[in-house]
Structures are given as structure tokens and as C-alpha cells.
Amino acid sequence: MNPIMMLVNSISKAAADSTYQPGALQPWVDELESKVVTDGKFTKAEVLYLPFSPPPVFWDYKCKKCRWWELPNGCKTVDGEISPGAWCAIWVPPSTYKAFTWVQELIKGEW
After folding, report:
1. What confidence tens digit (pLDDT) does each residue in 56-91 have?
2. Triad 6, 45, 28: Cα angle to 5°
3. pLDDT digit string, tens, across residues 33-44
4. Less Cβ around it within 10 Å: N or C end of the chain?
5. Residue from 77, 79, 78, 66 nearest 14 by CA
6. Paired residues of 60 in beta bridges
């Protein structure tokens, strides 16, 4: 899988899912989960893992706010130790994490 296409898929499908096309994200989630079951977890290099998160747009893109996050420092889809403040190309918001929530968190001082 091309990491740039994975990034485009993750962000565009999540944005569509939260705005004009509910359900758009689920096929992508299913594809990633299937890949992990079949081939094992992605390496950090395969998903362009960064030890920091890009600035928020729709969401705050930190690993600890990703559907794949596992406490205390793991990921369901990426191999190795994962920093809570990191990011990768297959970042996907949890189903309960709504778009632009980071603005409310920032105002409340939770960000």
C-alpha cells in the first residue's frame, strides 16, 4: 500500500463520513483491519509514523485520539511502541470522536 494513498484515504473518508456521507469510512477501516489480520501490523515506515502530530484541521490527529490506539503505548495496526502524541498516515478517528472536537477541547483547556 502506498503511504500517501493511505493518508488520502484515511483523511478524506473520515471527513466525508463526518459530514456529507455517513458510512464512507467503514470500508476503509475494514480494509486496514483485514490487511493486519492477513499480513500482520504495518511497520512505522510503511505508514509514515511521526513522533509528533500535524496541526489539527477536522480532528486533533494524535495517536491517543485514533481508533487504533491501545493503552499504554500501542496500536492495533502499527508495530512497536507508539507515542500518544505521534501520528501516522492511517490515523482514523474513533466513531465517538466528532469532527472539530479539538476546538471545544482547546477552549476548555483540555488540549
Report:
1. 888 888 999 999 999 999 999 999 999 999 999 999
2. 20
3. 999 999 999 999
4. C
5. 66
6. none
